[in-house]
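Lab notes, practical 5.
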Amino acid sequence: MVTHFFMIRILLLILLTFPVLAQENKKPFRIGVAGLTHGHVHWVLNRAHDGDFEIVGVAESNRALAEKLLNQYKLPLSLLYTSLDEMLDKAKPEAVTAFGNTFDHLAVVRACAPRKIHVMVEKPLAFSLEHAKQIQQLAKAHSILVLTNYETTWYGSNQKIEELFRANKPMGNVRKVVVHDGHEGPKEIGVGPEFLEWLTDPVKNGGGALMDFGCYGANQVTWLLKGERPLSVLAVTQQIKPHIYPKVDDEATIVLTYPAAQGIIQASWNWPFGRKDMEVYGERGYLIADRQGSKIKAAHDKPEEFVAASDLPQPNHDPFAYLAAAVRGEIEIHPYDLSALENNMLVMEILEAAKTSAKTGKAVSLSRKQ
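Output from the prediction step:
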């Protein structure tokens, strides 16, 4: 009887310990980095020694830049390849993170898709809607994930937005969303020369502030409204600083009209300070959220309260942990999640319509089905 009791205890101990052992024995996720000219590349390089993933290769033709960054983050120069194809074939990553110019996103997916290598690009998904459609076709044909990374996806304040406006909707349906994104301007904040060169190029970036920061609002509104398509897109762009940004817009406002709601996206390289915040107004209250948390007024007779942002649960707290979990089938990606391809295809439709509207001075209607 005593022996039987101890055997049960040992079995229970093994069962309780197994998940921990499995986690400890789990191999680091293998990431390849395509390009180093995007300023956000510091995000992945700064995480390179955390242990949950391994950078197995870096493809960058600018050797001086590559050596500088690899030395800065104490990564071996043996990781460097001048060709993306060579890096993919020799390093064999499970997924690639694209940190080059936006125009090159399609080329990265073209190289990765036939090799069954998943891709995460920095926002926006593509240079143009036509490029985005080709990316979508490649992803479907080769059954790979193509995710889009936005800084705002990992804000803890998204939990309050989910709770108040997407789950049981205690504040009722969304009526108006106002999104503010941008900063003083890329040159003004001192982005690196390699980043500035393509960020202010209408081909390599697809535009200026409209593309750089308009995508955030389109992404968040699409997520908030669970993939609802706007009826129309109206946009105004300006060159307030043509002496600094002669080739692209530095100011953009986009108005999205829905059957029972409106979205206003204010994208700018002219804010007096950096900002990424959004206002969501429902039938019975509002929420104003940024990285720090949310100001919430639940009813007209209640005071506004501030709720600090809490940490998002793993792996939804970080783009590279999320990428690994998605590729390995540990989480389910819903069509209009912030990183999902479906969401970002609609983002590209909105941005393309916004560029057309800004040129013509007229609202652009979106077809109801694609």
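Observations recorded by the TA: The longest strand covers residues 174-182. The chain has two domains: 9-149, 155-312+337-365.
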